[in-house]
Amino acid sequence: MSDASELPKSEKEEEEVTPEPEEQSDDSSEEEAAGATEMDFLRNLFSSTLGLGSPDKVLDELTLEGVAQYIKSGKCKNILCMVGAGISTSAGIPDFRSPGTGLYANLQKYNLPYPEAIFQIDYFKKHPEPFFALARELYPGQFKPTVCHYFIKLLKDKGLLRRCYSQNIDTLERVAGLEGDDLIEAHGTFYTSHCVSFCCRTEYNLDWMKEKIFSDDIPKCDKCNSLVKPDIVFFGENLPVRFFTSMKMDFPRCDLLIVMGTSLQVQPFAGLVGRVSKSCPRLLINMEKAGQADPLLGLLGFGGGMDFDSDKAYRDVAHISTCDDGCLALADLLGWKAELEELVKQEHARIDSEGKKEKSSESKGAAAKASSASAAPETKKEE
Known about the structure:
Blueprint: H1 28-50, H2 64-72, E1 79-83, H3 121-126, H4 129-138, H5 147-157, E2 161-166, H6 172-175, E3 183-185, E4 188-195, E5 203-205, H7 206-214, E6 228-232, H8 241-250, E7 256-260, E8 282-286, H9 295-299, E9 316-320, H10 323-334, H11 337-382
Parallel strand pairs: 1-2, 1-7, 2-3, 7-8, 8-9
Antiparallel strand pairs: 4-5, 4-6
Helix pairs in contact: 2-10, 5-11, 10-11
């Protein structure tokens, strides 16, 4: 499946980002764990590429059933999820790369020099109109989270989710109930916006940006009149520092990695699958297999290096289906299916109810404004 609802990302390597001191943990045990994991990562990289060592096999079988049995065993306490646009397509958000239906295949109306230009920072600064026209079509708040989003929320509720790493900028993880500490929005988010001027950088919230976008205004800073851009990562920009600082703490402690709805083609996000321990099981739920790196690329540290089919396969499971169907199947095996379906039903009903209240409030406000405007001339006439 193509990476959908995720934006193009910076091609810069993690070494180019210097984490700020205040974002580093003061816990010495965490620092030691991170250091040990860096060595473990290199050791695993060489041993897996060269066929050395005897990896521990955690799963009884390389199937969805095997993963479910592992979760039910109680040995699995720190699950990491890595998600891409495939988890949002059933909400109605198109992906980027699918032939014919992806966003890149349907941008002709914006008269771009090439499709990716709409997400390049230099082009945006000169021609912001295409991006904001597209933003009106895809703006957060117009879509409801999917079964897959709520499955991740269920993992959180059951105390099993350590963190969700998302390539998506649609904010549906937040709508589903994941909070700031539960979530690493690797490619940024619409949740906040900033003035693009380095001398200003004033921050604006989601409501401010929404008002600008849906009034057909190009968002300009109230203080310096420069462009204001949602905090999503364009080509030519660095990934958030928190992405790099968190992954060094999270992936060494992961005891199950669930990858959903991403083609694992873009670095450095794709390389995260290689940062878990050598024995950590990895489950891919996707419409096609992904992350199977060439041995040479694996040696260089690129790609996922997942192995589903070889004689040496011992921990990677590919469940080929839509993300929603895969999550329902796993939930069924775990005995959670009814709970998941009820959660989706209740939350969608709540979102619909809030949407109706918001529209009613907007209608009353517009009516009051129109009434006031029509009454003004009469008042003036009486005077």
